[in-house]
Amino acid sequence: MTRSGPGSEPIPSGPWDVVVVGAGAAGLMTCLELPAGLKVLLVNRNTSQRSSSRWAQGGIASVTRRDDNSASHAEDTIHAGAGLCDGDSVRLLVEQAPQCVDRLLALGMDFDRNRDGSLATTLEAAHSHHRVLHVQDRTGHALVDVLRQHAEQRPGLLHRRGVRVSQLWVENGRCCGVQVLDGCRLQWIRSRAVVLATGGGGHLYTNTTNPAQAAGEGIALAWTAGAAVEDLEFVQFHPTALKLPGAPCFLISEAVRGEGGRLVDQAGHSPVTDLPGADLAPRDQVSRALVKCMRDQGIDHVGLDLSGIPRDQAERRFPTILDRCRNLDLNPLEQPIPVAPAAHYWMGGVATDLTAATSLPGLYAVGEVACTGLHGANRLASNSLMECLVFARQLGAIDLPAVSEDDRRHWTLPEQRFQPSQTHARSRTSMGELARSIDRLSEQCWDVAGVNRSTKGMQTLLKLTTNAMAPLEQEELLCIVNRQQHEQQLALEEPSRQELNLLLDLLHRQRTSALLLEACLFRAESRGGHFRIDAPSTLPQWQRHSRQIRDQRIHTRQVND
């Protein structure tokens, strides 16, 4: 396997068999599951190893105990999904989950175990059984490390970090490659298929547990290329993110409450006592209860009290959380941790079938960027990492079109054939103003489309966002991106490269935010991760998926039983 970063030799233009975009759990597992013998390009926007899956603390849901069964796992998933789970997706996940666990064990995943050597499991919200496997409170970190170790040994795979996909290549109604910004080089890459594994969109909101690159870019890319997106109104706000002035938002795993942690207000009373399940009620219900409590009491956080967990048990299960709190001068075992809801997971995404295929031939999606119909309106805790594994596994049977001899000859010519040309174009807008526009948009999304949604506010923001996109799209740098010929390489001067990155960030955020707002306004009810103050009831006529396709009116799709 060959690895290199930005500034290295240009990526061969193709034809590749598969380009995988994103190197979290979904992207890495996809690389492991794709049929042997394929030429695979794995591109990762980050030069670091940050990803939402790597940050996942809680665990991976699967039936492993004798007192549990797949029917119960399915029932819990469907109940959490508030009537919008597609039955075929649920059945696929719960039936294949134990096989995926076996696969991870064979790869060397070192799950926590009981004293008798059996796999240790914990309880998380809305689960009827202890079925969440874990590695202390760093399950995602351990998973990504194991997957990367094996994926990077795959023959025929090239992993390039610091490479951004700026648009998808669509020709004759089929996705056949990507345009990438690789350091200062802008070029097209030809492939037989593209797999999006770009993660979710938590950073569309100012308060989020997600890493910075999780801003819905994969959704913007897919929708722009003509693929359908679904259920974008359903955003899961995790109730317990660290809330401390000057400190970054940090997830406090639900497993803490599963082990005995309790939510408390300033008087030490429970703000969730009226909920069925109390501290372990579904996340949308707990988040709304906390927002109400904070509003009523005029506070910006509640407390998470760990005193109900034996000290040695807390130290053993949650070393990462405890260390992070202590580094911020908190004493989490003596005083409640200050927490508040934050954007955590997007149930909606690029619509896929059970083979991970989107509505655009040649384009696939796996992980949080995808909407498989599994989660419905509200994801069951710890189903997300398992979804990455199960749907990546489906790509073991990917059906790729043949490459014509003309294409093969053309795209395997020596790279000197594609001589780069230079551009000195600059943005009309300063980098400082572009960054401020991004921050304003995320603050506005939080205010009007967060835990509690305001119709008037969303309408206003949708209009402002839509109007702002038109002049942005006329920026010369973005016009150059859109006009680039497939055989052309462009070399950008450093200021231009930085400006183009910010322009793409803002444009993709605007597109995805507009789609989110449109979906929120379209669904005139409250359900799961979507709560409208002006439409607080769940209505039977809205037991349907929302679907958005470019150049079409937003519409609905029937739930598959």
Characterization of this structure:
- The strands form 4 sheets. Strands 1, 2, 3, 7, 8, 9, 10, 17, 19 and 20 form a 10-stranded mixed beta sheet that branches. Strands 18-16-11-21-22 form a 5-stranded mixed beta sheet, with helices on one face. Strands 12-15-14-13 form a 4-stranded antiparallel beta sheet, covered by helices on one side.
- With 561 residues, the protein is α/β, with parallel strands linked by helices.
- The model has no long low-confidence stretch (mean pLDDT 93).
- The protein has 3 domains: 16-234 and 345-405, FAD/NAD(P)-binding domain (3-Layer(bba) Sandwich); 252-341, Alpha-Beta Complex (Flavocytochrome C3, Chain A, domain 1); 420-558, Methane Monooxygenase Hydroxylase, Chain G, domain 1 (Up-down Bundle), CATH 1.20.58.
- The chain is built from 16 helices and 22 strands.
How would you sum up this structure in a few lines?
The chain is of the alpha/beta class and 561 residues long. The chain contains 16 helices and 22 strands.
